[in-house]
Amino acid sequence: MLSVGVVVVLAVLLATLVRVFAADIYTVNQVSMEPTLNDGERMLVVKDYPGAHGVQTGDVVVFDGEGSFDPYQGGPSLSRSLERIGHWVGIGSPPGVYVKRVIGSEGDLVVCCDETGHLTVNGEQLIEPYLDYQISPATPASEMSFEARVPAGRMWVMGDNREASVDSRDLLGAPGGGMISQDRIIGRATQVIWPWGERRKLEGDTQ
User: Fold this and answer.
1) From the candidates 68, 93, 100, 168, which is the catalytic residue?
2) What is the tens place of the pLDDT at every residue in 18-31?
3) Which of 32, 68, 93, 105 is flagged as catalytic?
4) Right CATH number for 23-201 from 1.10.10.10, 3.90.320.10, 3.30.70.920, 2.10.109.10?
């Protein structure tokens, strides 16, 4: 009969493997994805992404923003190590982690905006039911106009809270032209799991 200690060790090992390779829980610590995600909520992030489907428009992705949204930090530091430990025990998210919505992936032409105020992807109007306002010429999907062709291995991302989101639009003049490397993806956020009374699947999830 296995001792209690062995059972505990096996349980911890199994939980670690699940969190590293299958799914993990991240805490939202930003307002850029409101109303889809609210500050302080916890979301389930699956790691088998992008997988066979590839990166899809509409997916909500969690990624490491170091080198794009955040400057490179170099080697490990005590504060970063403590933040990562905090994430592992369920307090906050690791440093430099962002959650945004994919608007375009490699090869896509993303344009803002057409005559109705909508974004277009490869000439097709993008319907965005997850925004908290009605898109119109007076209230477009983005106040900033742009046209961007997404190169291979990258993606164009934006927050649902367009007026309070730092995203690909703000990086247009930076190396990479505002595109986030798909190599930086941690996983796809699929649902809110906490608070318990706010559990829900994320609107716009395509898989």
Assistant:
1) 100
2) 445 457 899 998 89
3) 32
4) 2.10.109.10
